Amino acid sequence: MTRLQRGLRRHATGGTAISRWRKGAAAVQSEPIRLLAAAVIVLVLCGLVVFPVAMLVKHSFIDAASHLSVQVFLELAANKGILSAASNSLFFIGWVTSGCLIVGVPLAWLVARTDVPAKLVIKGGAAIAFIIPSFVNVIGWIFLAAPNSGYLNKLLVSGLGLDRPPFNIFSFGGLIFIETVHLFPIVFFAVAAALANIDPSQEQAARILGAGRWRTTVTITLPLVAPATISSAILCMLDALSSFGAPAVIGTTANFSVLSTAIYHLLTYPPRLDLAAATSLPIVLFTLACLRIQQHYLRNNRFVTLTGKATAPQLLELGIWRYPAFALALATVTCVAVLPFLALVLLSLLKAFGAELTLGNLAPDHYYAVFDGSFIVLPAVKNSLVLAVEAATLCILMGMGFAWLVERVSVPGSGVIAAVIMLAYGFPAIILGVGVMLGYINVLFGTLTIILIAYVAKHLPIAFVFVRSLMKQISPELEEAARIAGAGRLRCLIDITYPLVRPAAFVAWLLIFSLCLREQPMSAVLTQSGTEVMSTMVLQFIDDGSLEVAAAISVLIVVVSMTAIAAARLLAPKGVIEAR
Amino acid sequence: LPEEFKEKVDPVGPQTLGPLPFAGACDLDLCVCQEVNMRRRASLMKLPGAFLCCLALTLQPASAEDSGPAANFSKLYQAAAKEGEIIFYTDGRQEQAQRLSEYWKKNFPNVNLRLVPKSSPVLIAQIETERAAGQHRVDVSHMSQPYVAALWKQKGFYARYMTQSFARLRPSYADVDGAFYTPDVYILPAAYNTAAFRDKADLPKSLKDFLNPRWKGKLVLADPDTAGNTLTFLMAMLASGNLDWSALELLAKQDILFVRGNPDAVRMVASGERMLAPMISSFNVMAARAKGQPIDYYVLTEGAVVVQSLLGIMSDAPHPNAARLLVEVLTSPEAESALSEGGVFWPAHPDAHPATNLPRLSDLNPIALPPPSPSDATDIEAFLKRFKTVFGRQ
Fold first, then answer.
1. Is the ipTM beyond the 0.85 threshold?
2. How far apart are CA A283 and CA B341, in angstroms?
């Protein structure tokens, strides 16, 4: 590359990091609102992410005698178990992310860009798959696909006369399957939102130039939603990396551990907070590496598809493929949502786990236990709902603000801001919970606020990624037109940007709401008497052997989430949900 | 009970005499009162000096105000009431916590009991994290990891306190320095799927029987790396000579399904995924059986390891008097009797009455464990390392 080429490229990408920083700093000085916004971002992110993570870092560098030491990192490097867990984690997240993309992208395309029937059923199925708490999802799948006792296995063995059970959920493959069906909705919803925003004129141009439907889809449509695809794939990777419920249950039976379970293990018998904190630091590096790759890819490409030129969205007619496509989508939905949810419902109605699955053994007794005042389930339901609504709303407000500042306003160090936001997502939830606890134990311990801080820190990246991905698709010319017409930055944000990103923000709100409703590892650490949430109640019932009651609460979680989504559909301004 | 009086009573010795019943004994079941009074009279025959004093106490008519547990610990209760609340981290089962909450509200309404139920691993992690942050939030902790209790004692996490039952609970159920106590115990028996074994004669009788190839692919065990009870069981069996490493090597060839914890092991047996477990904690099996799940426990010829839950006042507790009150109550025979009824744990206090639904512990060939020691951690590390190698566990 010649010097001239390097110069041109630097100019095209905004110059070197230092020059970009200088330009941003100068811009900040010239506009007080930017300065204020930058200060607010820094303060909020410090409180949410930097402070708790700094507490963990501090503990990883302090030895038993309270001296600064790197001894713990040397111990970490020599620990074969953790190194093996790290290697397993890499394989695990690789397979899960691939699975999420393979399932999520085509399904999103079918729903957003084709005339496949019953889109609501497909979207509802994906939502259910995402909402079911992972540790309960595992139990549902064990109920269905355990080699000897799984009802699905029994049914297939007796129905088809098979020699051996076809499924073994207690395997590495079983874990990948469970995690994939649990996480693919992230890709599905993000890509579907992005696909719905594509300017159809680009596809039309391709068709006019002679490209067929499939070629247009593969060469025009899908590349245009690369920001959403890559961002959601990274979310899946980080989510899989921090996943605990399924790896803990299946990992033990299938005899392998991943980083999140290894870290959890380090916090017990006897606890090694220093080693656990040190183990989570390489995850920070991994997260940063993912973001760097994403930045590198997205910076060198343009994905603006939403411009000021209004064009009507056009759906691809599938013709004779319409019903086969529907059958495929329906089979996927059955597999990812109907089967595990049905298993949960059956489990919640079964008089006792292990009893024969007959009508006489089904009764709603466990639901009575859920609503029995002595079990304090109802206050937990209320706490969960309050926290989920507050966390989702705060995440969306912050996510929109941060995405706007990073994408549209030249705030110095925007790359660092994006990295800090994403940092918390890759952290195993339990260690982030410990970090938040270490950070706020003096003032907020035993309150719902400390749980809210953890929820917001963990889920802010979802709002940020969803809104930012969509913002990348929106041409700045729309905002520039408003500015030329005399609107200020704030007016521009409210009247132009917000209505355009509202669909993605709404989907992100629902995702975060559902995630918070079922969040477990951080809640287990941070809840106290009076601040219990539904997921900790579920876990308590599982630990007590009352699997049936745990299943009943899980059904309740799914029903509450689905009701919230349905209510949102009714209350949302027309077009916000339908467009998705 | 006045301290000076108690000192006079104690020399009689724990094997022949329990502590005198508190005034609240009148609230107990009539039979219990009779038995307690008979024992008291017998002991007083040996203590003429205390006789008149005790008789005077006994003959005083108990009014509604000065009877019951609150009256037994009235000074402590008054001091605790000024503190207003107590924070209790417990790994106890939900029904157990519920029963304690009701008992407490009924007897000590002026002290708010904040129960924080968490599993042992989370509870331990939480207290360690709090301490690392220099915070002392919890008054009393209750968990079931003996060597963690020993480590906590060594690290000064526990405040030392001698309860009224201290002498009676020694040496088995109270730490020598009063750092922690055992309010209740459970056992680690074998378990089986009742639908798979119609005839109990088919069950393996001893640990060595599980090595029979007949049981290959049919066993489940909670991983000792994650389940403290399995660790306790295997180490106790190795220490007692009932098991050795060559037997464990043969067991490793039995295609055992390892699960995370004992509740998971119960589920695997109850669902029929595996039909047998050489060891599962008794309370998990009893709770599942009570719900109608097809599972039951039985004791192997080697006997059943007895596991103690451990209760201790944390150092620098925010509500020290309330903490003492709770530990006094939970180690008292009255509360242990009342709380064990309908439950799945045996009360530890020798004067407490086990629940009528439980078999007598002495009939189950119990194997007592030695007191925990901080050095156990080293032994555990060495054991787990070898276990992982033998069983090919990651």
1. no
2. 49
B341 close to B355: Cβ distance less than 8 angstroms: yes
Which residue from A483, A474, A488 is spatially nearest to A31, judged by alpha carbons? A488
State the best of B139, B273, B289, B390 to mutate against chain A, taking most chain A CBs within 10 Å.
B273
CB–CB contact A270 B267 (8 Å): no
Length of chain B: 394
**What chain B residue is nearest to A138 in terms of C-alpha separation?**
B264
Report phi then psi at A557, rounded to 5: -60, -45
User: In chain B, what residues touch A269 (CB-CB under 8 Å)?
Assistant: 121, 124, 145, 148, 228, 380
CB of B331 within 8 A of CB of B311? Answer: yes
Residues of chain A with pLDDT below 70 are 1-34, 64-65, 269-271, 298-314, 372-376, 410-412, 571-580
Whether residue B125 and residue A446 make contact (CB cut-off 8 A), yes or no, is no
Sign of CA dihedral A146, A147, A153, A154: negative
Beta carbons within 10 angstroms of residue B65's beta carbon: 9
Give the pair of three-digit tokens for residue B45. 């025959």
Q: How many CB pairs under 8 A join A and B?
A: 154
Count of C-beta atoms within a 10 Å radius of residue B246: 10
Question: CB of A373 within 8 Å of any CB in chain B?
Answer: no
B133 and A354 within 8 Å at the Cβ level: the answer is no
B296-329: per-residue pLDDT in tens?
Answer: 999 999 999 999 989 999 999 999 999 999 999 9
Question: Which of A56, A63, A252 is the best substitution to test chain B (most B C-beta atoms within 10 A)?
Answer: A252
Structure tokens at B363: 């009939």
Contact flag A271-B125 (C-beta cutoff 8 Å): yes
Query: DSSP secondary structure string, B305-374?
Result: EEEE-EEEEBTT-SSHHHHHHHHHHHTSHHHHHHHHTTSSSEE-STTS---TTSPPGGGG-EEPPPPP-T
Residue B257 structure tokens: 């399904």
Of B118, B139, B144, B295, which to mutate for an interface test with A (greatest number of A Cβ within 10 Å)? B118
Instruction: Tell me the three-class secondary structure of B192-232, residue by residue.
Output: EECCCCCCHHHCCCCHHHHHCHHHCCCEEEECCCCCHHHHH
Do the beta carbons of residue B177 and residue B160 sit within 8 Å? yes
Q: How far is A489 from chain B (nearest CA, A)?
A: 43
CA distance B110 to B132: 32
Q: Express each pLDDT in A128-171 by its tens digit.
A: 888 787 777 888 888 888 898 888 898 899 888 888 889 999 99
Question: How many angstroms separate the CA atoms of B107 and B109, rounded?
Answer: 6
pTM for the model stands at: 0.76
